[in-house]
Design a protein that fits this description.
globular; mainly alpha; 0% strand
């Protein structure tokens, strides 16, 4: 199997796992007895935690000797598996469910940039990888898994999401470890310019407004995802 095909399959199964956590956050947390307000707190807290945790996790690859993208992704995904199974099948208080889900969500989102790093490493060493196609396949797999899991959850309950995540995470890691190691072992030190947030915004205006637009779009998506259960339950109640 070619490198491009392996990388495409990596995205295919990786975004299956993402849907199990991000796509059904309201369904899973409601099954654990959380209210809509508490679910909103978990969603907001998860996004805030991701802002700080994601760059920190990515920086560990260059800071810790011997740490690689594969090793770090393995640690993060296996930790997420343990947290998900723990929440699904052990009786724990609602407060701990909220805390564990925030951590699990943030850990899962912290692995997203690593998929891009894998592609960029291959491209920088002259190996062609079609990241756009792979990401498109990932989006299609998310939509497909949401459709399928929605039906499965209605029959088997929300706890099945943790099992699905475990299976797809192991498949993702299996594909990850069958990707060839990048030949890039050293990275050039970049000169970091010091400056305030205002200075950065003034210098990179277009980039700032692009990020701002994505923030609003992601916030809207989070609102819809969080309150989906409430919207439908109220609609059918009337």
């Amino acid at each position: 199997m070619s490198l491009k095909a392996k990388y495409n399959f990596l995205h295919l199964f990786y975004w299956f796992t993402g849907c199990c956590i991000n796509g059904f956050i309201a369904v899973f947390l409601q099954s654990k007895g959380l209210t809509n307000t508490e679910i909103g707190i978990v969603t907001g807290g998860s996004c805030i935690a991701t802002i700080f945790l994601s760059p920190f996790m990515s920086s560990l690859i260059s800071k810790i000797k011997g740490m690689t993208i594969k090793k770090l992704m393995t640690i993060l995904m296996l930790t997420t598996v343990c947290l998900y199974i723990f929440m699904a099948f052990l009786p724990i208080p609602a407060f701990l469910v909220m805390v564990f889900y925030v951590v699990m969500y943030a850990l899962n989102m912290s692995t997203v940039p690593m998929l891009t790093m894998i592609a960029m490493n291959y491209i920088n060493e002259g190996t062609y990888v079609n990241f756009g196609l792979a990401r498109g396949i990932g989006s299609a797999s998310w939509a497909t898994s949401a459709l399928i899991f929605g039906q499965v959850v209605s029959f088997l309950g929300a706890n099945v999401l943790s099992i699905a995540y475990c299976v797809f995470a192991l498949v993702t890691l299996f594909i990850l470890y069958h990707l060839p190691e990048s030949k890039i072992t050293e990275t050039k030190e970049e000169v970091q310019e010091e400056g305030s947030v205002i200075t950065v915004i003034k210098k990179y205006k277009i980039f700032f407004f692009l990020l701002l637009g994505f923030c609003f779009m992601y916030g809207l998506a989070s609102c819809i995802r969080t309150d989906t259960c409430c919207i439908f339950s109220c609609s059918f109640a009337h």
